[in-house]
Amino acid sequence: MFDINNIIRNNIKNLVPYSSARDEFKGEASVFLDANENSFGSPLDTAYNRYPDPLQYKVKKRLSEIKGVPPRNIFLGNGSDEAIDILFRSFCNPGVDNVILVPPTYGMYEVSANINDIETRKVLLTEDYQLNLEAIAAAIDEHTKLIFICSPNNPTGNSMHREDVETLLANFSGLVIVDEAYINYSRQKSFIQELTEYANLVVLQTLSKAWGLAALRVGMAFASEEIIEVMNKVKPPYNVNEASQQLALQALNNVDTVNNWIRETLSERDKLVLQLKEFDFVVDIYPSDANFILVKTTGARDIYNFLVQHGIIVRDRSKVELCEGSLRITIGTPPENEQLINHLRNYK
């Protein structure tokens, strides 16, 4: 049975968070002399002299309407990477606790663990890039606090079997973090719908991928109210800046545009897969639920270098375990994909 009090760090449990000026007064006023801001404005067309909403309520309210989740179950961070780091700092004691990673997977989980001095226990995915539940169970001990699952997975592109994730949620007494950065491209439904079923579930999403806002750095975590309260207590007071909040809010009113981009990306993905299969240096193309494909080749580094010479950059994943000989290729616009194929036709 999951109990947040059994996994939260004692110092975080007893932490009195910083109280900012915007925490202490949330109402309307005509004169603000409480936060030591520059009262004259900003040397910009838009005034950014006032501190932003520390809890980003307007953005969360709009996300709530789109996702069907109450604002109190939403955390916003400076990219999903901040949410990942805060989970480590909130629930893992440095030098004592450990987390489970299932490589090949997103590299920031391990980097963040190392920064926070948390042991990582790696359980390789199976040959078809699915969870090895028996090996995960064997790796868990009384100091295991978090399990990170990327689905759709980066760099392999596939979604994890839903029933396997549910098995972990039902049997693990720590947090199961399901990173859904690429969920907008997937045939699977989001685990957000399961928040009321599993108290130990944290779902990560982002505005960097399908929403096209990578430069704004706005990541999301969805979880129980008690988990979100802990994360809000640990985060910096103004972790999402005003410009990002304003622009994210504008973008979230353009759902139709994003949905059209998703449909075109999926169409281009299918087209690109068929074209790549024609090349004799392509050994395999793995099934993808993301806006990229993992392509196994006979000479990944040579192909990578050839494309670089022609101004086309893909990701060489050939040194990643279980991805030997593979390139990760993001789905571009139709002209970009056409350039890729045309240059590959000249590769020898």
Automatic annotation (TrEMBL):
The keyword Amino-acid biosynthesis applies. Its EC number is 2.6.1.9. It catalyses: L-histidinol phosphate + 2-oxoglutarate = 3-(imidazol-4-yl)-2-oxopropyl phosphate + L-glutamate. GO terms for biological process: L-histidine biosynthetic process. Keywords: Amino-acid biosynthesis, Aminotransferase, Histidine biosynthesis, Pyridoxal phosphate, Transferase. Its cofactor is pyridoxal 5'-phosphate. InterPro entries: Aminotrans_II_pyridoxalP_BS, Aminotransferase_I/II_large, HisP_aminotrans, PyrdxlP-dep_Trfase, PyrdxlP-dep_Trfase_major, PyrdxlP-dep_Trfase_small. The modification N6-(pyridoxal phosphate)lysine is found at K209. Residues 47-344 form the Aminotransferase class I/classII large domain. Pathway: Amino-acid biosynthesis; L-histidine biosynthesis; L-histidine from 5-phospho-alpha-D-ribose 1-diphosphate: step 7/9; Lipid metabolism. One of its GO terms (molecular function) is histidinol-phosphate transaminase activity. It holds the Pfam family Aminotran_1_2. NCBIfam families: hisC. Belongs to the class-II pyridoxal-phosphate-dependent aminotransferase family. Histidinol-phosphate aminotransferase subfamily. PANTHER family: HISTIDINOL-PHOSPHATE AMINOTRANSFERASE, HISTIDINOL-PHOSPHATE AMINOTRANSFERASE-RELATED. Homodimer. This is Histidinol-phosphate aminotransferase. It comes from Mucilaginibacter hurinus.
